[in-house]
User: Fold Amino acid ABC transporter substrate-binding protein from Paenibacillus lutimineralis.
Amino acid sequence: MKKTGLISLIVVAMFVALAGCGASGSSKNENKLVIGIDDQFAPLGFRDKDNNIVGFDIDYARAAAEKMGKEAVFQPIDWKAKESELKSGRIDLIWNGYTITDERKEMVLFTKPYLENSQVIVTLVDSEIAGVNDLAGKVVGLQAQSSAADALDANPIKDKIKTVSEFSDNVLALSDLKTKRLDAVIIDEVVARYYLSQEEGTFKILDESLAPELYGIGVKQGNEELLNKLQQALDELNSDGTAAEISKKWFGEDKVLK
Assistant:
């Protein structure tokens, strides 16, 4: 056989092999739903003592993916870069206590709200801080690029706080509060109540909150097809009682919005 003929056969063989791999990979990806999460956001999405990712949003997402005929794959991400991760296609959804805001609506598509929340102030139990105005002159911590930061920015007290320290996750912020490097932490109420239940007698939540909010699931702009399929699955989970069961498992009551 001539050398040119041999080369031609090799090229054709390589093309067929690559095409086969591409088709296989595409089919595999179509059956998966890659979900970007903050794996330090208990009780919605976090790691248990065995390092497994668990939580309300995790169970809810798995149930929704099953309704859609897909497998949920959970991808811990840098929460500060969540919208960039979605836009790039590295994840299909942002789903882990993701607050619906007007600013975020310009970057992603949202499902209907599924949980209510608010931003609250957590202090040590023996703290003299009793309300928002008492944060003046204090050192306050919060998760970077979170709705806690948005809530604080919208409140006049922001200009009177001595220092605002940003953390990659809420666990680190609460750890610094526990060691008194912070005077208070602004945090999602659903997360705060979980940690209060885990460390009774350590923290307290002030009665005065900063902002009510709603959680939704973020989908890449332009992907209305995925948004509609996901919303249909969520509606089915509500109607067949699955969502209520998952909520009772993690919250002790049905908190899912209908």
